[in-house]
Amino acid sequence: MGSRASTLLRDEELEEIKKETGFSHSQITRLYSRFTSLDKGENGTLSREDFQRIPELAINPLGDRIINAFFPEGEDQVNFRGFMRTLAHFRPIEDNEKSKDVNGPEPLNSRSNKLHCKEERYI
């Protein structure tokens, strides 16, 4: 099962996602496996309905808000890259990551990016 997920993700794509989101190789592979198991249409994207089939989200009073976080306004599908970018907002920043590349782009899970994402939803 895990080997199937890693063969479907190209190494360069995995490295780009790793760099962009801060997730480890094993985390990305595990999340890709989960993503593909949720993709009932087998088209490489998830719909709102795919998310609503997750029992924990279906019973969660904030489930709709959590699901909406994955879909930019006007979009009804999310690909794996978008899925990972959204999940990265919830990943805590580790102390050793804060000082990595001061000139590089700010991590997706930084305080300002989290606030920016929230502002976009309410504009």
UniProtKB/TrEMBL annotation:
Keywords: Calcium, Cell membrane, Cytoplasm, Lipoprotein, Membrane, Metal-binding, Myristate, Nucleus, Phosphoprotein, Protein transport, Repeat, Transport. GO terms for biological process: protein transport. Residues 94-123 are annotated as: Disordered. InterPro entries: Calcineurin_B_homologous, EF-hand-dom_pair, EF_hand_dom. One of its GO terms (cellular component) is nucleus. Residues 26-61 form the EF-hand domain. It comes from the Eukaryota. It is found in: Cell membrane; Cytoplasm; Nucleus. One of its GO terms (molecular function) is calcium ion binding. Residues 94-103 have a biased composition (Basic and acidic residues). Belongs to the calcineurin regulatory subunit family. CHP subfamily. This is Calcineurin like EF-hand protein 1. It comes from Rhinopithecus bieti (Black snub-nosed monkey).
